[in-house]
Every structure is written in structure tokens, then in C-alpha cells.
Amino acid sequence: MPTDTTLDFGTIIGRVRQLEPGIRARADEIDELRRLPDDLVAQLREAGVFRLAMPAEWGGPDLTPAQQTEIVEEVSRIDASVGWCVMIGMDSGIFARYLEPAVARRLFPRLDMITAGWLPPAGLAREVDGGYLVDGHWRFGSGCTHADLIVGGCTVHAAESWRVIVAQPSDFTIVDTWHTTGLAGSGSRDYTASNLFVPREHTFSFDQPIHPGPLTRQREAINRKMPGVPLGAARAALDYVHQVAARRTERPGGMRWARSPRVWRAIGSCEMRLSAARSFVYSSLADQWAELTAGREPSPRVRAAVALARYHAFREARDVVGELYDLIGGEAVYSARTPLDRIHRDLITACQHVVAQSRTLEHAGELLLGGQPDYAFI
């Protein structure tokens, strides 16, 4: 793999901030397209946001999960759909570690390549000479409209095992199903394959990382940076309400919002809740990373904390934005006048992801009581 100019955390997040005015100006366009514009994808590639997990020996930044999360958070503060696509697309550097090195270098010849796809086994793979014949219909292919490679989870028919295929976008049929409440710009469409031959070397199991190390010591590496999306989106909503409070007056009465105890209470509450959720995310990731880099398996308590922090970030961010929406009142319903409408819908949609569902509480509780949840990514 060619070693592009090495980009570090500070350089990448600085480039993201330079893109902010342009992304904000295109928010309506992104929603109307229901995908990211091609030229914006090119700008994001150049910024380096899709290479966050690429190994250092390939010239990648090899960022920690906390650093990955912080960059996803910063992008999502600008636009949640863009942040979601970055969060998904950067999995290239994680998936590459599950493939034989020579195969990974062929499939990922550039550091800024984007992957998309649905990992649960919605496909059926039949073993044949040299690989598999695959049929499947996968949902929620976020970023599949601009991906360089698409993955799909499959059940291997004879062995009843779970493997993930890696194939070219042209091998699939993209189905335009993405007409949704929020995250409209993520382009999370369905995709299908019929009788697709996939070489065995272009498949992997999460049980067998070929590139061992802290990042892949546990299977849930792909989930660790997810809280960046709700944390960033909710931060954007709070920043907006701060701006409104500086200029708005109560009606009737004429009291400035900046002098209103009602507004103070709401903003104080939301800042407290979001800051607490954010602290839980980053402290739990730090505890987990300390165990992983020391070569130890994280304890059930550490594993549960990471999952619970992620769940809490999604739910608390959604509820904080709901409280801000109520604070703004009738003005909040006008999507052309305020970003709160879009952010609210984006977080409602994001919270339908499995990591933000109540089964996460069940999995964490089972871990804490000595059990082994059947969910692969905890």
C-alpha cells in the first residue's frame, strides 16, 4: 500500500474544522440528495477522516478509539449525516486487520478508502471451490452510494457460521429505500446480491483478526467511536440555543432570555446532562484502552461500562435536544429557520440503532452478573 503523507489527530481535526462553513451551507442539499455529494466525499477523503483506523505500518494514523470518537464528534457537530457516514466509512482500517496482509493491501490500496455495509448475517453463503456463492438482502448500508468497498454479513450454509464478505459496489444492486425521519444524508440504502462469487480470501470472521493488537482484541472495535455522532449533534443544538438566548426576549413581558431563570435552568440542565454523558464515554474508553494496550482482556465491568456509556450518549443526546426543542417552542418546527428540527430528527433516527436500544442494558447487566451475552459486539 502506498504510504500517503502521514496525518495525525491534530491535523485531521483541524482540516475538519476548515470544512465546517461549506458543509453547513449544504445541509439542505445533503438532506435532499439523501446521500453525500461526491465533491464533499472527496473533501472528506482529503481531510483524512476515513483513514483514522489505518495501521501505522501502512502510513495510517492508527488513532485510539477515543481519538476516533472525538473526530466523529467534531464532524457530527457540523452535520450528523456527514458524521454518521464518517463513522461508518472509517471502518476500512478495522476490517483490513481481519484479512491476510497481501489481500488487505490489494483491497485497500489507498489509506482513504471507504467501506459500507451491514454486518449481521442477512446473506447466505454456499461454499464452492475457492470461495462462496452469495445471495442476500442487507439493510442500512450507510454510505453505500459513495463506498469503495461494501461488506455484508453471511451465514455459511453448511457450517452455519458467520462470515463477512468484502466486494466491489458494482457486485451489488443498491435499492433506494432511504426515505426516513432523519439522517437523510447518510444514504443508508438496502443492497442485494444474487449468486455472487466471493473468493474465500475476501471474507473474514471477527473471531480471527490476522493483524492482532489492541484495536482488534475485542470484536466491538467498530462500535467504540459511535457515540461521537450523538454527542456532536447535541453539542450543535446546545450551541445554537446559546446563540438564541443572547438575542431573544420573552413574550409577553419582554424579559431577555439571557436574564430568564427559566432559560438558565433549561440550559444548565442540558449542559450538565450532555457533559456527564460525554465524560462517561471518554472515561470508559480510556479504561478499556488501558486494559487492551496492556495485553489484558477487559473485565466484565469495563466492557459493560463502554456499552452503557455508548447507549447513554445516544439516549441522553436525543432527550437533551428534545428539551431544547421544547424550550425554543413554536419556532423550532420551522426547518428553514432553525437547525433544531433536523438535529432532533437525526437523533430520533440514530437512536433506532441496536446500540441505543434497551437490549444493551440487558447485555450489560448480564455481563455484570457473570453471564456471556449472545450479542457479538459487546
UniProtKB/TrEMBL annotation:
InterPro entries: Acyl-CoA_DH_C (IPR013107), Acyl-CoA_Oxase/DH_mid-dom_sf (IPR046373), AcylCo_DH-like_C (IPR036250), AcylCoA_DH/ox_N (IPR013786), AcylCoA_DH/ox_N_sf (IPR037069), AcylCoA_DH/oxidase_NM_dom_sf (IPR009100). It comes from Acrocarpospora macrocephala. GO terms for molecular function: acyl-CoA dehydrogenase activity; flavin adenine dinucleotide binding. Pfam families: Acyl-CoA_dh_2, Acyl-CoA_dh_N. SUPFAM superfamilies: Acyl-CoA dehydrogenase C-terminal domain-like, Acyl-CoA dehydrogenase NM domain-like. This is Acyl-CoA dehydrogenase. The keyword Transferase does not apply. Residues 230-357 form the Acyl-CoA dehydrogenase C-terminal domain. Gene3D superfamilies: Acyl-CoA dehydrogenase/oxidase, N-terminal domain, Butyryl-CoA Dehydrogenase, subunit A, domain 2, Butyryl-CoA Dehydrogenase, subunit A, domain 3. The keyword Oxidoreductase applies. Keywords: Oxidoreductase.
